[in-house]
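Q: Could you fold this chain for me?
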Amino acid sequence: MRLVVTGMGVISPVGNGVPAFWQALCDGKSGIHPIAGFDTKDLPYSRGGEVKDIPATRGMAFPGACDNGTRFMAAAAAEAAADAGLTSAPELHPDFGIVLGSNFGGTAPVERLMGFTTGRLPRPGSDSLTEFSFMRCADYVALLLGSRGPRVVLSLSCSSGTAALAHAASLIREGHAAWVLAGGYDSLSRFAFAGLSALRTMTKDEIRPFDKRREGTLFSEGAGAVILERLDHALARGARIHAEFLGGAMNNNAFHMTAPDKNGEGTAAVMRAAIEDAGIQPDAVDHVNAHGTGTKYNDVVETQAVKAVFGQRAGRIPINAIKSMTGHMMGAAGSVEAIASVMTIRDGVIPPTINYGEPDPECDLDYVPNVARKSPVQVVLSNSAGIGGNNAAVVFAAYQSGGGK
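A: Sure. Below is the predicted structure, expressed as structure tokens.
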């Protein structure tokens, strides 16, 4: 069964909407700045990627307690639906599913509740409890789009957005839906940022993926939405096809709650599984959109995994890390990286890994440093990993009529 991408939507620190997001990436624009949305003076880190404006979502009225992450996801879903030509509610779609992923769900309502229990904040409204729920965002998206198909919410740390795509594809292939909106979202809050600071994986400088000077990552917020659809269903309704979804996979390292598997075995295994699910050989992949967090260990592990999967070709495959620009968007990371992968196929441009200046002997591949590169890319593997050892990878290809699985 062939699956295709027919809709995409993005809310991000470098721009809202796919056109603005893509232009910023190609220009090497950073969305990292001092955090303005909450007080960081007693925290060890103070920089991140914030969404500047949240576009209004037509037809949706959110309560005051609604978390920004939910608003991000609704806006991205609305853009993806419009891109795909999906008519919204009140028309109902029994064959349209939703799969969302998030690290934190609604953190702002939790912060208000915790502030009340410690006497720092006034009593919050009763809707704070419902708005925290990980299912709440999916409730809004289902209502917005009239989805009556399967509705799934995943929380697989920073692989959530990519895992959502892999699971969406499984739902379609197994006959549970004809099309599925898959995506990830998260928002920055003092509550979440304090926890992330405790991990000690952040830097006070810039995110420098694969650079010898790298000291850590920086977290950010936003949402990405991708509509996957059965090819025959898309053709029957005359949909515009952005790319073909070839395959995806998920696994876990069973190694450590926070540290990556130092041999990269889990990362290599999930990439191999995604390639196998895609029905292609590793030689067919001509670009890798890396997880690329800029941490000391992850970048070495991912480099080792790429070498294990692609062998002697590894040094000739362009690999980029858009987190150098967007920041680490947590649950949204994999979904926006998937969109960047599709856009690379469409436009033949690989966005750069910015802030790269000093090669690391342990990270010795082609990381597309600092300047976007024109390249006729046909097949992209987008890779994600997360705390707890969660891994996910997906494969996209240029759409060609006829043939295929």
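A (continued): The chain has one domain: 1-405.
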